[in-house]
Specification:
276 residues, alpha/beta, Spermidine Synthase, Chain: A, domain 2, Rossmann fold, five-stranded antiparallel β-sheet
Length: 276
């Protein structure tokens, strides 16, 4: 019997292999190779340049945690900007919050949006919501050139290589700070504390030097390198670890809960050491 497998080289020494039923789509856009695979364990999977971005079975962990932590932290999030995230998963979670009036998605590769709409409707459906504006352009240039102020800016980026490399720099975070309201919050996915130690150190140092409040938190995502993933939050006013989450409204979620909001900031010692 012939087996079809997809393998992601997560580091030079570690690979992740997943058995697949079939390939639904492949193409090379102007920026990257895009593939949609139908896997046996995780359902449909979006892959960019050989790296897993999301799957139908575990997407909720990443998208809920990058979204609900900052939106519940803010007192009244109305205007949100998402940089990256062309699959629409983060957008669908943002729109669960009743205070949200508008969401802008800035995605450099239009084909990611189009492919996701066609093959991943389970998570991309929110891209058609009238509150959502899709802007196809480079996120770094968008932040430099806009005059709009946002309550929350979410960096839903790919790994820090190629077009996404500039999304992990001091200058980028500094420019984001200028585009946030006086109570604004920045949130970024910041990779694996096992495989990306130096990146986490550098990002936390940069965000800590720009924002008066900086925190790192964790979630477990089985298809991401090492399975343990980090997010870093920079806030001008609201501390996510002291906000009264229990008094907030309820939403439907599969991973995030109000108790997890508090517990995700309780870090293992080896992760704490990265932030010193």
């Amino acid at each position: 019997m012939i087996e079809l497998n997809f393998t992601e080289k997560q580091t030079k020494n570690v690979s992740f292999t997943c058995k697949i039923k079939r390939t639904l789509h492949t193409e090379k856009s102007s920026f990257q190779e895009i593939a949609v695979l139908e896997t046996i364990e995780f359902g449909k999977m979006l892959v960019l340049d050989g790296t897993v971005q999301t799957t139908i079975e575990d997407e909720f962990v990443y998208h809920e945690m990058i979204t609900h932590v900052p939106l519940y932290t803010h007192a009244e999030p109305k205007r949100i900007l998402v940089i990256g995230g062309g699959d629409g998963g983060t957008i669908k979670e943002i729109l669960k919050h009743p205070t949200v009036e508008s969401v802008e998605l800035v995605e450099i590769d239009e084909r990611v949006v189009q492919v996701s709409k066609k093959y991943l409707p389970e998570i991309s459906y929110a891209l058609n919501d009238p509150r959502v504006k899709i802007n196809i352009r480079d996120g770094i240039e968008h932040i430099k050139n806009i005059n709009t102020k946002y309550d929350i800016i979410i960096i839903d980026s790919t790994d820090p290589i190629g077009p996404a490399e500039g999304l992990f720099t001091y200058d980028f975070y500094s420019n984001i700070n200028k585009k946030l309201t006086d109570t604004g919050i920045l949130i970024a996915q910041t990779e694996s504390p096992f495989f990306n130690k130096e990146l986490i150190k550098n990002v936390f140092k940069n965000i800590s030097s720009i924002f008066p409040i900086a925190k790192l938190y964790l979630a477990n995502i089985p298809t991401y390198p090492s399975g343990l993933w980090s997010f870093t939050i920079g806030s001008k006013k609201y501390d996510p670890t002291v906000v009264n989450i229990s008094a907030k409204y309820d939403i439907n979620s599969k991973y995030y809960t109000k108790k997890i909001h508090n517990s995700c900031f309780v870090l293992p010692e080896f992760v704490k050491e990265l932030l010193i």
